[in-house]
Fold this protein.
Amino acid sequence: MEPPKIWREKRQRYLALGISCKKCGKRSFPLSEYCPYCGTNDVEEYRLAETGKILYFTNVSMASNEMAFNAPYCLGIIELNDGIKVTGQIIDCDYKDLKNGMEVKMVFRILARDGHEGLIKYGFKFTSI
Ligand SMILES: [Zn+2]
């Protein structure tokens, strides 16, 4: 786990922030100073929608060291109700109960741990509504 990367992504992960372009009107995630669609820097931060639906999902049984405490876990691509697509862990449910289109909501949890005494990375995961 890279402390500088965790520090850089802290605001977007902790506050679930994306950007809204003032020129073309499109929204995107992750945070950036520039719109990925039209390239302008005339963008503003906005809070991502906290609910959405599962587009795709899979079960992860072999996890990296920092994610091992979660394994096995469900990972999904979620389309938020503002149209943004994000990847996130789906928690508090069994893989066999998941379905494409299932409605989920964003919750704040521990994402990764760097051992017992290392850094803890927080961010959003999803749970069924
Ligand atoms: Zn734009």
About this structure: Residues 3-128 form one domain. Residues 21, 23-24, 26, 35, 37-38, 40 surround zinc ion (CB under 6 Å).
